[in-house]
Amino acid sequence: MSLEDSLISRGCWPLCGVDEAGRGPLAGPVVAAAVIMEPGHELRLLVRDSKQLSHSRRRDIFESIMSAPGVHVGYSLVDERCIDEINILQAALKAMREAVLCLDLKPLCAVVDGNIAPVLPCTCYTVVRGDELEPSISAASIVAKVIRDRHMEQMDRLYPGYGFARHKGYPTRAHYEAIRRLGACPIHRRSFRGVSSIDKGKGR
Q: What backbone phi and psi angles, to 5 degrees, belong to 104?
């Protein structure tokens, strides 16, 4: 039995799962999602850690999560300027809190991926590898990942030449080469060493 199933059986309901995507990239926002799924909902059997899913399968499940009755979703994007101001950990925690506050059904408790809990208006439990172990966290992982991927695909059209649609801002060789060639663009995280050490002031 998962932790969230145990909590629900003890009356801890509504319960949301919370996860984020985008702590490691050199560009773009960190995105967090919070998901509440009714006990026994069929999606609880389908979701799994978004990193283990194919691109197309992840997006199919995302559409199901966003449209299914009995599922409640909140999400938040914290941009690169805020990341540079308060650091990536605090930005991720901020996004998680905002995602929970966006839910239209207010949770009594939350299960959060990782070992550091955001400040939430409900009881909070952290779960290391929660995106692999807890269905609601897995669903939140999928939502956060797809929303961030789509955002970076939009940024690729706004800032061509960096390859954001391919690498989503992560530190790939092609991304480093683009920064060397073009300089940092407005969505790059200037506080990240991989950006600050390479950028030559050519930002657009």
A: -80, -15
